[in-house]
Amino acid sequence: MHVLLIEDDPLVASGIRAGLMSFDFVVDHVSTLSAARQALKIVTSDVIVLDRGLPDGDGLQLLAEWREQGINVPVLILTARDAVRDRVDGLQGGADDYLVKPFDLDELVARLHALLRRAAGRSSGMISHGALALDPTAREVYVDGQLVMLSRRELVLLETFLQSPRSVLSNDQLKDSLYGMNDDVESNALNVHIHHLRRKLGSVVIETVRGLGYRLGKPEAVHLAGAPYKGQRHTEQPYKDLL
Ligand code: CA
After folding, report:
1. Domain 127-242 falls in which CATH fold?
2. How many angstroms separate the CA atoms of 233 and 109, rounded?
3. Which residues form the OmpR/PhoB-type domain (predicted)?
4. pLDDT digits over 29-61, tens only?
5. How many A from CA of 8 to the centre of ligand 1?
6. What CA–CA distance (Å, rounded) separates 109 from 34?
7. Which residues belong to CATH 3.40.50.2300 in the chain?
8. Minimal CB count within 10 Å: which of 11, 18, 66, 221?
């Protein structure tokens, strides 16, 4: 899942960035309103973390612009001000949630997962699709209750499909969920990950929609291809995937 982080305090930003990355979020960080405007033109973010006090204005300004333009990406406001008025302003301005600094990283992660869950219209924390189940917090995937070994990128990609199970996702959308703006991405990297997912979960787990992109296969199409993985959990070696 791709997070756009808009925060001007370098220490706070690097802490959030490192923390979210350890939960497999792809994080793009900008520190001004104008850079955020640019970023949103370039990448598709699944969720936005927005500071209020920024060098070129109040984050709420930007939020108002986005909502006016019909951009409905879930937004969590970060604020140092614990005044009731500020929180009310944020929520009335179209924010979906807020956190008061200083906050606990686990709480931020839990709230972002909750926002993504609500955006996808799910009520439970587990994301299920036929025999397939993904635990976004534990970063684990199961087929018929059996743990499946996926690389970090494969898991993120699968999570992106599960987040929009009925949508056709374009190559660009899928790449944005996997990589940050400044990542150097090999042109066939996405195809490689899709190939691996099909090999591990069955060839019909992801359908190719010619000329448009890809879509998650029908729930009944998902099954475990090959023997179940019975080794180390993927979370213990999350950064071995170099693509
Ligand atoms: Ca600030």
Report:
1. Arc Repressor Mutant, subunit A (1.10.10)
2. 21
3. 124-218
4. 999 999 999 999 998 899 999 999 999 999 999
5. 5
6. 26
7. 2-119
8. 11
Gap from CA of 78 to ligand 1 centroid (Å): 9
Residues of the chain within CATH 1.10.10.10 domain(s) are 127-242
> How crowded is residue 14: how many other Cβ atoms within 10 Å of its Cβ?
12
Ligand 1 mean position, distance from CA 59 (Å): 9
Q: Which two tokens stand for residue 64?
A: 């108002």
3-class DSSP assignment, residue 39: helix
CA of 51 relative to ligand 1 center, distance in Å? 6
> Hey, what are 19's tokens?
């923390």
Domain spanning 2-119: which CATH class is it, in words?
A: alpha beta
Report the distance separating Cα 218 and Cα 121, nearest Å. 18
For the entire predicted model, the pTM comes to: 0.82
139 closest CA partner among 233, 241, 2: 233
Q: In the numeric block, which tokens belong to residue 84?
A: 């009731």
CA distances from 163 to 1, 67, 177, 206 (A): 9, 21, 11, 14
